[in-house]
Design brief:
Elements (H helix, E strand, L loop, with lengths): L5 H20 L4 H18 L4 H24 L24
Length: 99
């Protein structure tokens, strides 16, 4: 399954939260309602979910998982056993072409 890049998910969640905050503090006009509906729909499609709550949870979970993996990778110290050996040689197979 294809998955959206974590930064795309984070941007969508941020956009949703920003638009949602505007609906709490001001009269909701048709343009604002349409933008909120669009970002909600996009979140659902991009996360493969059917409700806003599921979409937000999935987006946040995926973004957090990638952040955690990156944090672990940046603090990991490579061991000597993971170094690549230079004793391997590459060979190219040859084939005879009948003509």
């Amino acid at each position: 399954m294809l998955q959206a890049h974590p930064s795309v998910l984070a941007d969508l969640v941020e956009r949703y939260e920003s638009l949602h905050a505007k609906t709490d503090s001001a009269a909701v006009g048709p343009a604002l309602r349409r933008q909120l509906d669009d970002v909600t729909y996009t979140l659902c499609v991009i996360t493969g979910t059917r409700s806003l709550e599921q979409a937000l949870a999935a987006a946040r979970r995926r973004a957090r998982k990638v952040r955690d993996v990156r944090a672990q990778a940046s603090t990991a110290v490579p061991s000597s056993s993971t170094k690549a050996s230079s004793s391997h040689s590459l060979t190219t197979p040859t084939t005879a072409i009948a003509g």
